[in-house]
Amino acid sequence: MNLIWMLKLFWALPFVLAIGYYSYLNYEQFVAMNYLSMIPVFLFLILIYPLVSFLHILAEDRIPLYKRIYRLWLTANFLNEQGFYYEKASRKQGGRSRKKFPRVYLKQGKYDLRLYLATQGNKFQERFSRIGSELETTYFMDFMNKIDEEKFVVYELAYSAFLNRIEAKDVVLNEKYELILSKVVKWSMTENPHLLIVGGTGGGKTVLLREILVGLLKDCVVYIGDPKRADFVPLEDLDILRGRVFFEKEDIAQMIADFKQTMNNRYDFMRAEMKKRGERDLGRFYEYGLKPNILMVDEWNAFIASLNRNARVSGQMMDDLLEIILKGRQVGSYVILAMQKPTYDDLPTKLRDNMMHHISMGRLSESGYQMTFGDENVNKKFRYIERLNGKKVYGRGYTGIFGLPAQEFYAPNLTSDFSFFDVFESYSRIENPHEPNYQGDIVDENVSESQNDVVSDDSIELPIQVVSDSSDIKTIGDFSKSIGKSFGQVKNVIDVIEKGGFKEFRRDNGKVVLSEEDCLLLEGLFDSFEAFDGTWKEMIDIHFDHDTND
Fold first, then answer.
1. 347 and 396 in one domain?
2. Beta-carbon neighbour count of residue 161 at 10 Å?
3. Cα–Cα distance list, 455 to 447, 464, 469, 481, 507 (Å)
4. How many other C-beta atoms are found inside a 10 Å radius of the C-beta of residue 151?
5. Which of 195, 251, 197, 543 lies closest to 395, judged by CA?
6. Is residue 366 located within the same domain as residue 463?
7. What is residue 481's three-state secondary structure?
8. Cβ 333 vs Cβ 266: under 8 Å
């Protein structure tokens, strides 16, 4: 008898006995053809098969012993149907031949299954080395790895990925700099630097980015580019991300350029520390007290499309990004890109192949999966599951290290009481002193020695006023609100002006303050830029060159 029917009969037996006992108690009414007494029996007979089938499926997921028996039957059925057996003739004349399977072992873990197939010179050893995708279909699991041992070929398959799901509040960066995304999935930024997230509209990649921020913002400095002005606009008002969220294409390109400079500044700092310590080899960033720096850009395809008309800016930006991806690991500078499809035009192969950890969300085409996870997964059966146990599935996809087999993945679950903003507001801002235009505590180097000599001990504790108390003085925040621009937009323009050597803005306790003249200058530049076909740097160069000529 088929093993599946035997297992189902096992579940049906208590119900059959219950029907028998009921029939025994109502035997006289049955003989008298009392139809009312027969109705429960008929209903039970109709419902027993779907009920037994449900219990069978439930047991497959919940009972380890039951799962093992069922998977042993699946294995035997697979070997039989694929012809992996030896036929031995019976010694009795006219007897039936017997089938003998090669040595096969199953090792069942909590989240994975290992299949050991003997390869000691048997006739199936070559075929055994090419059945990974077939095993995926047979067990309805994800093929993770194939290991060639001395006597066996071992297949590792993952199952119950849904059970590995965690909640968004549990996304953390551990002491090994591993971002915990599920019970078994971790992004190790030090071992597999840079993260690529791919998914179509509505696939859940932007929600996943926010969940990633839950784990990163507490211990990292994060810079965000959102060319669509969609999901990250409100985050720029948070203290932890003030001046680190960018929307305009020129600002995002400048953010990438500044991030590259920050990376190089961290290299300079680490080399200086290495010399101070008398070390011969440069260590990792955390050995010098540095926090990870993260560059995150959502909707990368849309950003590249907006730059297509300016080939020079696009080319420079790609060069900057490539340098970050190739050099950033040692100094803790990492890139996270989210896009709909990793085409060559938007993300060249050299960039994609050096972003080591990849995640897909929602449904992709076959070519999309291949571009995301590489040729090693060309035979993998990527499945789209719309419902699980009758419920709509959200946040499902695949994950893997580039060049290795991908596995099923469920993004952290969002509960109804979870608020991203409450979490982000609870974090303390981490300053980054290696930014090109860092505005931390600045010592006024223009104060002469003679001035320092005449300052009394009592006056040292008094704050030094660098600018006047005029009511015309404005902060960047006040000015940006008055003209309807973001803090980051105004700050970037000021940085471009100062980096070009055109003007040095005044500072109060290390913070830029704007006079009435400065406000008029900046407001005029923003008005002019709306009609200008170029970058901020190009327009500012033209503006100040024109003023000089006048």
1. yes
2. 22
3. 11, 11, 22, 39, 22
4. 10
5. 197
6. no
7. helix
8. yes
User: What element of type H or E holds 446?
Assistant: none
| pLDDT tens digit sequence for 158-182 | 776 787 899 999 999 999 999 999 9
The CA angle 479-482-487, to the nearest 5 degrees, is 50
User: Residue 170, exposed/middle/buried by CB under 10 A (0-12, 13-18, 19+)?
Assistant: middle
The whole-number pLDDT of residue 309 equals 65
Q: Are residues 458 and 339 in the same domain?
A: no
Q: Are 143 and 132 in contact (CB under 8 A)?
A: yes
Any idea which residue has 């105004």 for tokens? Answer: 490
Residues lower than pLDDT 50 in the chain:
1, 441-470
| Residues in CB range of 457: below 8 A, 6 or more apart | none
Same domain, 287 and 335: yes
Decide which of 426, 458, 481 is a domain's last residue: 426
Answer whether 146's CB lies under 8 Å from 129's CB. yes
Residue whose token pair is 């190739």:
326
* 164/400 Cα distance (integer angstroms): 15
- Asked whether the beta carbons of 60 and 70 are under 8 A apart, the reply is yes
Q: What is the pLDDT of residues 464-475, one digit of tens each?
A: 333 334 456 888
CA distance 172 to 151: 41
Quickly list H helices, 229-365.
Answer: 249-277, 300-307, 311-331, 349-353
Residue type, 73: W
**Predicted local confidence at residue 358, as pLDDT:** 95
Q: Residue 372 and residue 199: Cα distance in Å, rounded?
A: 10
Which residue type sits at 74?
Answer: L
Could you give the 3-state DSSP secondary structure of residue 396?
strand
**C-alpha 202 chain-centroid distance:** 16
- In a domain? residue 24: no
Looking at residue 191, its pLDDT comes to 94
Of 162, 161, 186, which is closest to residue 172 (Cα–Cα)? 186
CATH number at residue 495: 1.10.1660.10
CATH number reported for the structural domain that contains residue 257 in this entry: 3.40.50.300
Amino acid found at 201: T
Helices then strands, each counted (H, E), the chain? 18, 21
Residue 416 covered by a domain: yes
Q: How far is CA 84 from CA 102, 106, 157, 338, in A?
A: 7, 16, 20, 44
CA distances from 329 to 198, 235, 315, 397, 435 (A): 22, 27, 23, 26, 17
Contacts of 351 by beta carbon, 8 Å cutoff, 6+ apart: 318, 321, 322, 325
Task: Indicate if 417 and 469 belong to the same structural domain.
Answer: no
pLDDT of residue 441: 41
Verify that 421 and 455 share a domain, yes or no.
no
What domain range is 517 assigned to? 449-549
* Whether residues 264 and 330 fall in one domain: yes
Four-residue CA torsion sign, 117, 121, 127, 133:
positive
> Contact at 8 Å (CB) between 229 and 301?
no
* Domain-embedded: residue 331: yes
What's the rounded Cα separation, in Å, for the pair 409 and 267?
Answer: 35
Distance between the two ends of the chain, CA-based, in angstroms? 99
Residue 5 lies in a domain: no
Q: Do residues 413 and 475 share a domain? A: no
